[in-house]
Design brief:
Domain Cytochrome c: 50-150
Helix content: 40-55%
InterPro entries: Cyt_c-like_dom (IPR009056), Cyt_c-like_dom_sf (IPR036909), Cyt_c_1A/1B (IPR002327), TAT_signal (IPR006311)
Number of helices: 5
Number of strands: 0
Keywords: Electron transport, Heme, Iron, Metal-binding, Photosynthesis, Signal, Transport
Organism: Marinibaculum pumilum
Protein name: C-type cytochrome
CATH class of the domain at 55-149: Mainly Alpha
């Protein structure tokens, strides 16, 4: 039904909403995606930087006894090359407890997280005098920091 007084009724398709052409819609989606990517990458970099900063702050609890890399001897072993190393085997450090040497632990994310959360639970007769880190976010930050800073070249 057409009616000159009502332009919307002039054609049966007049009531249908007009859609963007498919090519124009794809171009708009690609543009929006491209604009969003740098922000996402920047946010990821900011998150990583914050994680490293928080990890470095948490490591302050450790550095009285441990070096990140080979350095002056301290109460505990150096942490250089920690990930993938068997517990109680750092060359040049001879003060490991018998319990640590016999633990059979190989340090990775899981074993180190458990140990740093509660050292006496993981190695009951170990000699490390540290109460542990209970806060999960702090533990995550410290692990990320240690992984980045102790990697053997």
């Amino acid at each position: 039904m057409t009616d000159a007084r009502h332009p919307r009724l002039a054609h049966p398709d007049a009531r249908r909403p007009r859609l963007l052409l498919p090519a124009a819609a794809l171009a708009a989606a690609a543009l929006l995606s491209a604009l969003a990517m740098p922000q996402g990458a920047a946010r990821a970099e900011d998150d990583q930087a914050k994680l490293m900063k928080d990890g470095a702050r948490s490591f302050n609890k450790c550095k009285a006894c441990h070096n990140l890399v080979s350095g002056p001897k301290r109460m505990g072993p150096d942490l250089k090359g920690l990930f993938g190393r068997k517990a109680g085997t750092y060359e040049g450090y001879d003060k490991y407890s018998d319990a640590m040497k016999a633990s059979g632990i190989v340090w990775d994310d899981e074993t180190l997280a458990a140990y740093l959360e509660n050292p006496k639970k993981v190695v009951p007769k170990g000699s490390m005098a540290f109460a542990g880190i209970r806060k999960e976010s702090e533990l995550t930050a410290l692990l990320a920091y240690l992984k980045a800073e102790t990697a053997a070249p």
